[in-house]
Please model this.
Amino acid sequence: MLCCFLCSFWLPLQAAQLALVLSSEEGPYREFAGALKGAISGGIWQIVWIGSSEAYAQAAPAGIDLVVAAGSPATRVALQNAAGPPVIATLLTRASFEQIRAESPAFRNGVTALYLDQPLQRQVAFIARLLPDTRRLVTVVSDKLADQLPLLKREAAARQMTLDAAVLADSDNLVPVLERMLARDAVFLALPDSNIFARDNIRPFLLTTYRYQRPVIAFSAPFVQAGALAALYTTPAQLALELGQMLMRLSPGNLALPPPRSPTRFSVLFNAQVARALKLTLPGEDEILATLNVQGGEK
Model:
């Protein structure tokens, strides 16, 4: 009887089967996978299958309780099967997740996301603390992020800033639109919009901002290393740690997934050379992080 009693508690712990689907097995996805393994080590969740989105599409594993999809291609594949297990999507932006979920034939419950991008409230608070004399922000987005502009405008107004934004149509030429916005005396907020900031146009964009002497607040460390003034971002390892904490509150018998949300863990990075070129004195990175952690920002 004692054995049966103990088994009644032990068996559910053995049933926490997790599949990790990666959009790529290199770079940030490898970093994320390694950090997630460490974050859930010793817990009830075990990664029993890990592989690429292509491998998952060809032969999805059976008996899985939960799928973690890292990146947009992995999320798209994980949502193809309407009868599949619940899915937590991560390492993708809010806009990408919402688009994939809306287009998915498996539009269903049992899906949530831990976004890669920062909430707008936190981004505006970052600029206000970093450059307290800022009175105007400018940005350029595609239709993909146009619905975020009203909230961004309200958050800017709450910090006594105005927002000038341009929405780039498919037929528009990016360079003249950017130059028109950069001609204004303002801080440029670069939002994670792949239709605007593709890998091959970041460098020309930053050269143009340098010519106009405009500070750029970016969304990734490579963007800062390429010449942006600063960035507020979440690393793959930070997302993995946060996801590990989420999994600790879940079990196969209690898979009530929380709503999609932005990360609470984040980092900042400054480009000291650009700050000197723009004659700007910046506070310390630790000071900024402490301020933003106190203020929060989940919008």
